[in-house]
Amino acid sequence: MCGIVGYIGHREAYPIILKGLKRLEYRGYDSAGIAIYDGNTIKLSKTKGKVEDLEKCVLDEISTNGKLGIGHTRWATHGVPNNVNSHPHYSNSGDLVIIHNGIIENYESLKKELVKRGYSFHSETDTEVLINLIEDVRNNENVKLGKAVQIALNQVVGAYAIAVFDKTKPDEIVVARLGSPLAIGIGDKEFFIASDATPFLEYTKNAIYLEDEEMAVVRLEKGIKIRKIKDDSLVDPYIQELQLNLEQIEKGGYEHFMLKEIYEQPNAILDTFRGRLSVEQAIIKMAGIEDNMKRFLNADRIIIVACGTSWHAGLVAEYIFEDLARIPVEVEYASEFRYRNPVIKENDIVIAISQSGETADTLAAIKLAKSKGAFVFGVCNVVGSSIARATNAGAYTHAGPEIGVASTKAFTTQITVLSLIALRLSRAKGTISSTDYRMHLIELEMIPKKVENALKSDENIKAIAAIYKEASNCLYLGRGYNFPVALEGALKLKEISYIHAEGYPAAEMKHGPIALIDENMPIVVIATKKGHYEKVVSNIQEIKSRKGKIIAIVTEGDETVKSIADHTIEVPETLESLSPLLTTIPLQLLSYYIAVMLGKNVDQPRNLAKSVTVE
Ligand code: F6R
């Protein structure tokens, strides 16, 4: 869960690596470092803090002189974030230098062996063990760097994306991956290494994504040689043309990526159903579903595995699949599922949901499900990600890059894809009437416009945020389809404003949480017209009589709730099953404005990282 960048070519490496690290800060931002070969020796600067802190303390000679280099932005796993534990790490001789994203699980036993052989260690990291292991192999077996990396990695248990170079042979970088992503950008007599393609977008559109258990020796003159780490077999490089563009990964005038991504939702949702939904022909077409229709039609059960916000999207999907397609659904935290001994039957389908496509627990859950014979369908945003590749089939969300750590457009586009799937299956199974089906398609097509309208409450939400920004606790309540939205709203507030928040099914309140309510407790209630409206109104009355402060998300024109609640935020009317796509919007904005008003780092909240590639 770190970002790595490397460069070898004819340009100054420093600015390329620095800018690349800034783009990868979503992966971790508690320390950063850079190492540049200046034609003679390696110059290394690293520090606790963000890439901007690194920029301030970087050695002068690094910034101007060197066409080979590597850089790292860290999310600490082994060793606290400090200058010493930051990457890159030298080997004992000072010849080799490494950056690493991942965890070497057996590092302690490897370290003991290396200490016996005279190696010393300056940091608490597993990475310093790996670079000395590579050095030890290189010296003892008298092999080139590439071979030494390969032999060392065959002794390692864990996950990694690494880049290593040797100052005595400064015409190559050796890279390898297992469980953490690694892309190689191919330019004109230059190569770029990165955790994803964003650091090299302005230089090349051609990239190779290494597969798990592959390594590559990237040579300035001779190009790239890829092989399997285990059996040494050569792999034909598959060069992909990148579809990303720079605009998509920049803030485009917004103060934060999170706000930009909230505002991108109308287009993101449109992109999600573009080419898949035709209201005119009353069809939904998704290759991953059509190709596996028989399997889906025979499914006795769907098991959804995911984490965090994606898990909340899975909960929404449970309602949609059961409601429309009449398929029983279970939604599992991937981190729990992977360590149970789940019962998976022949006709079960596992759906894995992940924005990044790199979440370690979700990936492990997929592997477990596959080992039990399950067919696994992926719903991912990042094209070519590990989860997209590990699943048997899938559908991308096409949300575009999500850089703010708090997930926003990923959630709504995941729900869109899952709604499309549920609708397609319900039609094929005959569990929905043609009128209802058509109505759903028409409503779905109108969702982008309605999200745009929901975004118009921005100023109202800002005013509410100003009133409640000092709250220490907050409750979020919803029922039915909007119960998962309540969970998601609470998660958003927690992660970016650090205010304690909990989501509850509104009716569960009286079984405990109601005791928390007093005049200091803000309670966000989703009280839209369709679905349990009267019941939710009763819940609101219960809160009111205990003096709780009510912020209600209501359907446009609602007067009943307006007369009871302290504040209301309107969203356009839609079908109950699609309402999460609208009710989520004000909750995202509310958290955003509270966090901004509290002066928090909205895009990079403390202790978090965008893709959680560790367990
Ligand atoms: C919350 C958030 C996380 C992620 C979770 C899963 O805003 O971003 O809870 O949803 O880490 O990540 P993906 O979807 O990449 O598997």
Bin the strand percentage: 15-25%
Number of strands: 27
Outline the biggest β-sheet.
8 strands, antiparallel
The total tally of domains equals: 3
| Approximate shape | globular
**Count of DSSP-assigned helices:** 21
**Ligand identities:** fructose -6-phosphate
Overall SS class: alpha/beta
- How far apart the termini lie comes to 10 Å
Helix fraction, binned, reads 25-40%
Strand order of the largest sheet: 3-2-4-1-10-9-11-15
Summed over residues and divided by their number, the pLDDT gives a mean of 94
Q: What is the second-level CATH architecture of the largest domain?
A: 3-Layer(aba) Sandwich
Unreliable segments of 5+ consecutive residues: none
User: How large is the radius of gyration?
Assistant: 26 Å
Question: Per CATH, what is the topology of the largest domain?
Answer: Rossmann fold
Q: So what's the CATH class of the largest domain?
A: Alpha Beta
Under CATH, the homologous superfamily of the largest domain reads Glucose-6-phosphate isomerase like protein, domain 1
Instruction: Kindly report the oligomeric state of this protein.
Output: single chain
Descriptive account of the structure:
The protein has 615 residues and is an alpha/beta fold. The protein has 3 domains: 3-101 and 159-248, Glutamine Phosphoribosylpyrophosphate, subunit 1, domain 1 (4-Layer Sandwich); 251-454, Glucose-6-phosphate isomerase like protein, domain 1 (Rossmann fold, 3-Layer(aba) Sandwich), CATH 3.40.50.10490; 456-602, Glucose-6-phosphate isomerase like protein, domain 1 (Rossmann fold, 3-Layer(aba) Sandwich). It is built from 21 helices and 27 strands. It has an 8-stranded antiparallel β-sheet, with helices on one face. The chain has a 7-stranded antiparallel β-sheet with strand order 5-6-7-8-12-13-14. A 5-stranded parallel β-sheet has the order 19-18-20-21-22, sandwiched between helices. Helix 8 packs antiparallel against helix 16. The structure holds fructose -6-phosphate (F6R). Fructose -6-phosphate binds at residues 307-310, 354-356, 359, 362, 406-407, 491, 495, 611-612.
